[in-house]
From TrEMBL:
The gene is Ddias. It comes from the Eukaryota. This is DDIAS protein. GO terms for cellular component: cytoplasm; nucleus. One of its GO terms (biological process) is negative regulation of intrinsic apoptotic signaling pathway in response to DNA damage. Residues 9-95 form the Replication factor A C-terminal domain. It comes from Gymnorhina tibicen (Australian magpie).
Amino acid sequence: MNGVQGLLAASVISIQNSCFIYPACQNCFSRLVLDSRRFNCLKCGCTGEAKDASYRYRLSLKIADTNDLFDITVFGSCLDPFFGVTAENLQRYIQDFNQLSGETDTESSTRALVQAVETCFIGKRFIFGV
């Protein structure tokens, strides 16, 4: 939490999106553009093979304290304890699950993950560094 200016105790009202993991540049943490074989960072120009892309957590939440509503995004390894694995490993587990189950439509695994995240976070109170 670099540059934390204060702490906010708030409850999670909702999860704002269903994409909790993204391919991230190891240099600048920006989202990578992936194709079937290569990745490219539009921000810093880093490139490589798609199989070597790193993944990072990004959890967008709507939270409320006693007075206000806020939209916040929590990034990175601080979410590892909540998911029980790194973003890299969760991405690998999702890919393996989809391959082993023969899923061509990844919608069911995405729905299951969203439901698990909602159960873990919605209605719970956390302290956020802002």
